[in-house]
Specification:
heterodimer; A: alpha/beta; Rossmann fold; Arc Repressor Mutant, subunit A; 5 strands; globular; B: alpha+beta; six-stranded antiparallel β-sheet; five-stranded antiparallel β-sheet; 17 helices; 20 strands; 51% helix; 22% strand; disordered N terminus
Amino acid sequence: MYKVMIIDDEKAIRGLLKSSVNWELLSMQIAGEAESGIEAVNTIDEIRPDIAFVDIKMPFMNGIEFSKLAIKRYPKLKIIILSAFNEFEYARQCIGIGISEFLVKPINRKEIQETLYRIKTELDNKAAENTEEEPPVMTTTTAEKIKEYLNTHYTSPDLNLTSTAMVFGFNSNYLSRMFRTETGITFCDYLFSRRMEKAVELAKKKTLMYQAAEKVGIPDPNYFGRCFKKYTGKTYSEYQKSDE
Amino acid sequence: MCGKSGGKKHGGLFAKFSSYPLVKKIRYLFLFVICVYLAFFGLVYVFFIRNNLSDYAEKKNLNTLSAISGNLTSEADRVSDMSILIMTDDAVISYLKSDAGNYTKVAKESVNTLYDLMNVFEGISSIYIFDNNLNYVSASRSVTTVFPRKLLTSAWSQDMIDNAGGYIITVNKAILGENGNPVSGDYMFRTKLNEPLITFVRVINDLGTQKPIGYLAVNLPLTILGDTYEDHVEGDSRFGYLYYDKYIYGDDLTAEFNLIPDHSASHKQKIVGTWGNERIISYYRLPGSPLTLVSSERFYAGQVIPTETALIIVLMIVITLASMLLISAFISFYITKPIKGLVHSMDAVARTGGLQKSKLFLPDDEIGHLKNRYNSMLDEIDALFKELIVKEKRIRNDEFRALQEQIKPHFLYNTLDTLAFMASEDGADDVYEALQTLSNFFTNFLSNGSSEIPLRTEVEVVKDYLKLQKYRYGDIFDDEYVLQDDLLDFKVPKLILQPLVENSLYHGVRLKGEKCVIRISIFERDKVLHLVVYDSGVGMSKERIKGILKADRNDDSFGLKGTIERIRYFCDREDVFEIRSEEGLFTEVDISIPLDGKK
């Protein structure tokens, strides 16, 4: 099974994509969705997709910026760009950054299926040569150092599993696994709770939500809002009201 | 000119002259020309006029001297005439031949003859006739002492003998001591009053044998020398006589005489003294005598340049200066002033950017033509501007039309209706509702291609637009409408509200992450229609507002800028909007359109 991720700011488009393809038949599954580039950057390390549909025009981080980041972290990732017919200016910037396919909205079911089939073939061919190397051993002190690094850098939106792995010289899979073993909590959860602790603090200070979002390293306020609700059980404004 | 010659010597001077204004240049040029004029007159005076003047003055001086000399000669001729009468007198000849002594009859007769002649010839002091033994007879007006031996022992004696009958002129002048007796001096005769005498002496020859038979001496008072030049004394001219180069009579000009270096010539002249105070000094040797006439007279221009000539020269200089002033005024009036005016009006164009023409009144000459060409150039530029504006308007119109024609509305409407029907058949009420909204939106959006639509329709477009956007993005905002009903029929350019609302949604609301309000208000205040789009989104910084107003066609935010441009065009004025915003709180775009009484 290949994992598919859909990144688009319009719920309807995401729904349309999901329902217009028989995923089982292509031995694929929808592993996750994201409403913005920011959200995708924060969840991609958990989802670990093989294929990603990326809308070219999104607020906070557009499809091209996201694709550049994602390909750097996952060079084998297949990216399919979704673009409206008048967004040629954006489309031109896609050349040469490693994007696999390019689809023009409105979405045409037949075209999507052909594209996905083409990608599946490529992935099948490559699967055979796929081996992974194991890097040096990680100790408890290293895990502490990583925690410390996260504590000081979590406000940066560029901070994530892969970037941290690169700083400490580990493979990101290995780092993720060992971090959990050493600390009893996943890397993503640790980063998430650090950010949310700060968010709660900011909410108490009456900071506007979109400004708080930027300050904790999640510059998409919509995604930040959902994260906040997940963490506290209340929306940001509800939390602020109840705090009074 | 003067700048150029000076420029070679000092590097900066020519550049400095070049940088002067035209008027100043011309003034300096004239100053230079006047200097050249004066220098020219100076040179002409020194090298030509002055030379002529001094030549003339010297000639005149010489004439004077020779006239004076002539006076003395005529006196001598008179004496000579008289002496001939004496020498041909029988009594005198008998006396001289007789050797008889002084108390004879012939001696007496001779004396009578002498007295007779003295009565005829005036101004003679005394007459003496000596025989070869130096016995003598005489006639005298005053008591005179004679020293006969001196006749043959004086400095001039040999000259007298050599002259063989011609007379020579000598002077008797004794210098007296304290006791009244002579102590020195060259004298043969001496009057009781010691007046200096001028003496004409000659040898008397026998008419037959031409052998000397005696001597004749005629004395005249020295004052006759004064008579020779008294007619020529004018101004401060001075005359004097020298005897053997020593002062003897008149003004003592020995010092002046010695200023002339060489005395060998019979006469000589010299100009001495400083500029403006010059004198002509000259001497003139009287022929056949040891007397020298010396003169000193003033030399000045007025002496020789006639007043009329001087007047003409002065007049010429004045006329030249006057004509230069006239030319200067001419150049100033016809050239520099008009150019200055023209430059001034060109500056005004450069400063203000307006194409106002030069209103100078100029004569119909080259500069006038320049002004006319300049004005017609401005006209041409103005015409080009207008043409450009017309062209630009036409292009915009064409673009808009082309955009509308790209859409074929009927096919779209019909398809949407079909889809709505299908949804309704299947009981999908929300799909039906969405399709109806879209259909409405397009109908109002296109408005059959009219470019101006009632505000009411524009509001409908906005409502449908926001409803459709809610389908896409979910319930992220509430839309509110505060409308003044009587304004809704006012016609405005199509799609002036929708782009503002779109701007609010994409640049305000969606970035906030919280539910926002978009409020459209339409009202009239002070005869101005206000269309206000408010959103409680993230707001805009001042930089962001500036950026939006500078956006070009390809930018995301061109919608707002383009709309503002269209409203400016519609109202034909610049001041049509205001953006109020507070970062993190709200943005409010306020479009104002003057109503001018129409609704």
